[in-house]
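Hello forum,

I keep getting stuck at the same step: I have a sequence, I want structure tokens, and every attempt I make locally crashes halfway through. Rather than fight my setup again tonight, could one of you with a working pipeline run this one for me? It's a single chain of 148 residues.
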Amino acid sequence: EPDYEQPSPAHPRNVTMGESIRLQGYDLPSVAATPGETIDLTLYWECLAPTETNYTVFVHLLGPDSEIYGQQDSVPCGGRLPTTHWVAGEFIADEYHIPMPQDAPSGTYTFAIGMYDLQTGIRLTAADASGAPLANNAVPVGQVTVHE
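Reply #2:
Ran it on my machine without issues. Output:
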């Protein structure tokens, strides 16, 4: 059942993914972590228009050296709500649980998120509120400090 109630994410954003999806914001309950811990992230999407492509969300946890230390790629809502089923005006709360590696060095980590077509590997274009494209079609969201 579509959810048409506007979410209130802790960290509002206004990033358009392609022409049919908007990232409304995200929740990041913890801004500190230790190696081996799982970090929770909830993304809030808005469907602007129906799409015929089933997009996959990528969530990368980039370390202080810009390398990927954690990752989860998934059809939204753990595979239960493909973008081809989204309805214009609908809002989707999409949860991710990213494990921090045991050998993760101390420092500041940043999440980078976006969407891509699994069939082609091509990412949806990501643009900020002014329409400026984002590097690598990835949206930086939230930072977590890791202490050993």
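The mean pLDDT is 96. If your local run keeps crashing, start a new thread with the error log.
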